[in-house]
Every structure is written in C-alpha cells, then in structure tokens.
Amino acid sequence: MQTKPTLTTSAGAPVPSNEHSLTAGKRGPVLMQDYQLLEKLAHQNRERIPERTVHAKGWGAQGVFTVTHDISQYTCAKLFSEVGKQTEVLSRWSTVAGEAGAADAERDVRGFSLKFYTEEGNWDMVGNNTPVFFVRDAYKFPDFIHTQKRHPRTNMRSPEAMFDFWAAQPESVHQVTILMSDRGIPKNPMRMNGYGSHTFSMWNAKGERFWVKFHFITQQGHAFYTNEEAEALIGKTRESYQEDLYNAIENGHFPRWTLKIQVMPEADALTVPYNPFDLTKVWPHGDYPLIEVGVLEMNRNPDNYFQMIENAAFSPSNVVPGISFSPDKMLQARVFSYADAHRYRLGTHYEALPANAPKAAKLNHYHKDGAMRFFTNDFGNADAYYEPNQYGGPVADARVQEPPMTIDGDMDRYGNDQLVDDYTQPRALYELFDAGEKERLYANYAQAMGPCSPGVKERWFAVLEKVHPDYAAGVRKACAALDSDVNAVPITSETPTDAEDVNTAPDTV
Ligand code: HEM
C-alpha cells in the first residue's frame, strides 16, 4: 500500500519511475519521449543563479524588530510610531570579497543587511559591520572591488593590487585600520555590530528634517578570531558562521541587537567642522550621542535558504515615508546599483519573490507583464491598467512627499580638497587600541602585506605615518620581521580582504 505522496512532474502528472530511463530495448538507447528525464536534467542545469558581484557568501535569518523608545519627534515612519510596535525582519550577513563558497572566518568587512516589512512598504538597511567605508566616490567602487577579487591573469587574490589601490586613496586608511584590527574577523555574525554607515535622513510629522546614522549594537558582545585561530578553524570547517548562527537559533538562543541612532539637526550640517555626508568619517558620539530606538531579534531559520536568503534583494533604494537619503554621493550611486543588480541576478520581477514581496503593505502599481509575471496584473481592478483613469485606480499621495531639501553649489566634479582630513579619525581609533590590539594590528598587516612589493609597502607606510608615526613604525617592523624569516612567510593567497566598510572609532570617538 502506497503511504508516501506520489512523485509528479512539474506539470503535476504522476511519475512512474525516478530511477529507470525509458529505453529502446534492455540495453538502451534512451527514447526522447522520456520527458521526465529531460525535465530533470534541464532543471539541474538551471539550479544556479549568478552570485552577488560582491557579498556573495552570506548567512541569514528571520525575526522581528520591536520599538522600545519613542522617536516620533524625528520621524513619521510608521514602523517607529509607537513603543511596543513590532515589524517582521529578514537579515543577511556576508563577507564582501569571497565567492559563494568562501570560508566564513576570513578577514574581511562583513555586510549587515536588514529588510523591514513595514506597513508602508519594505525598508532596507544595507550596511556593514563598520561605520565607515574605503572610498567616498562611487567612481572608485568598481576599481576597489577589482582589487579585492581575483587577478585576471593569476586568478589569485592580489595583496599588491589591494595596497596599491589603498595607498593611492588615503581616505581608505580609516576602514583599512578597522579591517586589520580585531574587528576584521568577528567570531560570527552575532558577535558584531551593524551600521548604516552612510548618513541618512528622517523627517517628522511637522516636516522637519534630521540627518541620521544607524547603529545596531550586538547584545551578544564583540568577539573575534586572531589570524591563527581563524586558520585553524577554517582547516576544520569553512561554514563556521552558518553553523553558529543556525544552531543558536535552532536552540532558542536568539541573537539580539539594540538599534540606536545618532541625530543631527538639518542646519548643523553647515556648521560642523567636517562633511557629515562623507562616508569615510564617523560623527563624534560626544556631539551626537546614541539614542536608543528598539531591539532586533532574529529568531527563525529560513525553511529554504535559497528562497529566502539567496533570493533576497536588499537595496538602499527601499525607503519608506519618514526615512530618506542624504547628499552622500556614494549613497545615490547605491540607490541605482542594487536594483539594477537584482534585475540581472534575479529577474525583472524579483520584488515579487517571497523574500522581497511586501508582507505588511498592500501593493498597488501599474507595472505590467514581462518575463515571469506570475502574479496578478490588476490588484483587483482590471480596468485600471493605466493612469490617470476613471476606474478608481491607485493614485499618488502627496502627503508622503519628503520635505524640500536645500541643495546649493555649482555643478562640478569635486575632488578631495586639501582641507579634507583623512587622518584624525583613524589616529583616534589607533590610539584607542591597547598594546595587545596594536601588536595584533601590526601582525595582521604583516601577513596581509607579505607578498607586496617594497614600493607598495613604502607607499602604504607613508599613509600610516600621517596617521601616527608609531602606527607606521609598528607595521614596518612587523613586515620586516616577517620578511627576514622566509619560513614564517604565511600562505596568503586566501588573504581575503575586501572592501567595504569598517566600523570603528565611531563607537569610541
Ligand atoms: C551588495 C554595489 C557600497 C553594503 C552589493 C551588490 C552591489 C553593490 C551591486 C550586490 C547586490 C545584489 O546582487 O543583491 C555597491 C556600490 C557601492 C557599494 C556600487 C558604492 C558606490 C556599499 C557600502 C555598503 C555596502 C558603502 C555598506 C555600508 C553591501 C551589502 C551587500 C552589498 C551588505 C550585500 C547585500 C545582501 O546581503 O544581499 N553592493 N555597494 N555596499 N553591499 Fe554594496
């Protein structure tokens, strides 16, 4: 008696055999009419989609955000409208440079992506575990990522390219300092903070705008691996983050983060002695203290990793009324880049996939048809397929319009002017490190820079010199010690570094 469900084709017809091909005679060949076999092989050929061009290796979970403090004086976003309010969230953490099969415990910046399924649509926070970034102009991003990926000829990672690039971009030294510090290999995604990194904006019901930075502070505490510990771990398992995260959630140890924001009144942007929209800088906490907002708890492993995590499409373009962008020119580039990547990686209707479809907001739009348009075209009103129309179709709501933002200045291509100070903040960070942290910083550099040419090393030492002479001297000495001991030169083809943001002094400055 058959107790198991009957296997079917993808058209729903029962399948007589999943083991034996339909052949002409006992010895074959296969008949072309064995369509179930053809379908099975064809599906296998289409099981992979392009991996993310950056942040390809990732780990994710589902959970909930709960408001604990009222911030309605800063934003009218409904997800923050009252204490106790809960919003469903999808998260994905990632390394930047490694491919989809990269080892988890590699030295790299970590991505920290969140999708809040709010009643006003999805709000995505696509940040990193660092509050700053390597570059401040989007023109430099593709080149920067090229240096983090494989060399076109050797097909290996190239420390020479990484430090060649960084040495020519001193603005990167803040982020590289974080990358080479203990924060460069968190023990797992639960033991690190998340940062929106950019300056965003909020506006309240009165139409007042504030500049805002987002901080997700781990309640598990920071923990890191040294290079040696990570190497030993990777020898045993390449999936340590997935294991830690999945098992913690399965065992009911739900990781939590406290959301805090820094808030700058709109007019302050003109008076603070730095560019508050420069992604390579943090805002001093003394001037703009952290304001508590709520708690993020990730408490569910996805039932299907591919469906919820690989198909997840996080984009800084996904904002909701009450939260918006800032003049940060990197942010504008990201507003374009992610949705473009999603259309390529997932297809035109990626937003209708389960991971990305709004869960608490009702959809109403006039986009039509196209490949894989598998959901309704009319949202219950078939005649209203154009706008304006006489059939009561959806119309725009001017009440959600962002208040005007004053922009001034001449159109130009503005470079780094002499007044930009790229060294004070990394210096403050360096000075915060205790003796042990500094020694590990130097040693991490020595391993990462080991294969670099003397010329590139010297150029980077010159950048470090401007941060702090002791910093340059420490790294120089560690590099020299490694150089002098040929046997100690580590295998660095996996020195994964990548690039995106780092988190740093911010918490401390
Ligand atoms: C992923 C572009 C800067 C954080 C991506 C992806 C692209 C991209 C194309 C792959 C998206 C996908 O296929 O789903 C850019 C560009 C940047 C930039 C053009 C600068 C102009 C940044 C910065 C941060 C960041 C500054 C953090 C503050 C992330 C994260 C992911 C990602 C976390 C992975 C998202 C996920 O989990 O699916 N980026 N990026 N990126 N980026 Fe960026």
UniProtKB/TrEMBL annotation:
<comment type="function">
    <text>Decomposes hydrogen peroxide into water and oxygen; serves to protect cells from the toxic effects of hydrogen peroxide.</text>
</comment>
<keyword id="KW-0560">Oxidoreductase</keyword>
<dbReference type="InterPro" id="IPR010582">
    <property type="entry name" value="Catalase_immune_responsive"/>
</dbReference>
<feature type="compositionally biased region" description="Polar residues">
    <location>
        <begin position="1"/>
        <end position="11"/>
    </location>
</feature>
<keyword id="KW-0408">Iron</keyword>
<keyword id="KW-0575">Peroxidase</keyword>
<dbReference type="Pfam" id="PF06628">
    <property type="entry name" value="Catalase-rel"/>
</dbReference>
<feature type="region of interest" description="Disordered">
    <location>
        <begin position="491"/>
        <end position="509"/>
    </location>
</feature>
<dbReference type="Pfam" id="PF00199">
    <property type="entry name" value="Catalase"/>
</dbReference>
<keyword id="KW-0349">Heme</keyword>
<dbReference type="InterPro" id="IPR011614">
    <property type="entry name" value="Catalase_core"/>
</dbReference>
<dbReference type="InterPro" id="IPR024711">
    <property type="entry name" value="Catalase_clade1/3"/>
</dbReference>
<dbReference type="InterPro" id="IPR020835">
    <property type="entry name" value="Catalase_sf"/>
</dbReference>
<dbReference type="InterPro" id="IPR018028">
    <property type="entry name" value="Catalase"/>
</dbReference>
<feature type="domain" description="Catalase core">
    <location>
        <begin position="8"/>
        <end position="395"/>
    </location>
</feature>
<dbReference type="InterPro" id="IPR002226">
    <property type="entry name" value="Catalase_haem_BS"/>
</dbReference>
<keyword id="KW-0376">Hydrogen peroxide</keyword>
<keyword id="KW-0479">Metal-binding</keyword>
<feature type="region of interest" description="Disordered">
    <location>
        <begin position="1"/>
        <end position="26"/>
    </location>
</feature>
<dbReference type="InterPro" id="IPR040333">
    <property type="entry name" value="Catalase_3"/>
</dbReference>
<protein>
    <recommendedName>
        <fullName>catalase</fullName>
        <ecNumber>1.11.1.6</ecNumber>
    </recommendedName>
</protein>
<comment type="similarity">
    <text>Belongs to the catalase family.</text>
</comment>
